[in-house]
């Protein structure tokens, strides 16, 4: 089994969370398993990512099928590759990292069956900073709500962005509504997620996340929510950021 690099411990990683997701490695591509919510929000989340990258970095598309040709993308906390794979199909040169080695093995295996060349690594963002790697786009999707120190993590992320680069994050707002839906509803009632997947006190409001970005001289954009329609059993982008939301930020040139 591949081993992650032995980087000293940081406040940017929770070992218990890594172990939790590592144990679920073989379930990433099961649309009816523990990662069903990520499969469901996938189309809306990818639409936001695609539109934001084009608006901020590619206002004039060179190709409708492969609009990200020539762009380097880093997916931090990539899991099984649910976002890395479609971005590779859109032409991006994708690097994807996760500290859980079994998760990375599952991601590599799935990409191989799809004929996709994705640079998967069982490593941490700090290691890439040490190697002075930078990227046009950095993704942190459903990551920050699992971290003990978000400010320390964003500082690391900022070091991985090239001047003029783009950061896209998605997370959960800290509201009574998110407690009711994302924890009580999703974990205890509907059983969409294993109990204990989320800790409400680690959720960030959009203003808090924006302030964290600004602390690293990143310029946040207006957040967008992702809302669930129980009648259609689908998720869509919306102005309501009361539970799930996405936010982009640019690094100055």
| Shape designation | globular
* Beta fraction: 15-25%
Helix content: 25-40%
Name of the CATH architecture: 3-Layer(aba) Sandwich
CATH class division? Alpha Beta
What would you give as the CATH superfamily? Vaccinia Virus protein VP39
Number of helices: 8
Unreliable stretches covering 5 or more consecutive residues: 1-8
Q: Characterize the biggest β-sheet.
A: 9 strands, mixed
Instruction: Specify Rg, calculated over alpha carbons.
Output: 17 Å
Topology record:
Elements: H1 15-22, H2 36-57, E1 72-76, H3 84-89, E2 93-97, H4 101-114, E3 119-121, H5 125-130, E4 135-141, H6 150-158, E5 161-172, H7 176-189, H8 206-214, E6 218-220, E7 224-229, E8 234-238, E9 244-251
Parallel strand pairs: 1-2, 1-4, 2-3, 4-5
Antiparallel strand pairs: 5-9, 6-9, 7-8, 7-9
Features:
single chain, 253 residues, alpha/beta, Rossmann fold, nine-stranded mixed sheet, 9 strands, 21% strand, globular
Report on this model:
It contains 8 helices and 9 strands. It is α/β, with parallel strands linked by helices and 253 residues long. It has a single domain, classed as Rossmann fold (3-Layer(aba) Sandwich), CATH 3.40.50. Strands 1, 2, 3, 4, 5, 6, 7, 8 and 9 form a 9-stranded mixed β-sheet that branches.
Quick take:
By secondary structure, the protein is of the alpha/beta class. The chain has a single domain (15-251), classed as 3-Layer(aba) Sandwich (Rossmann fold).
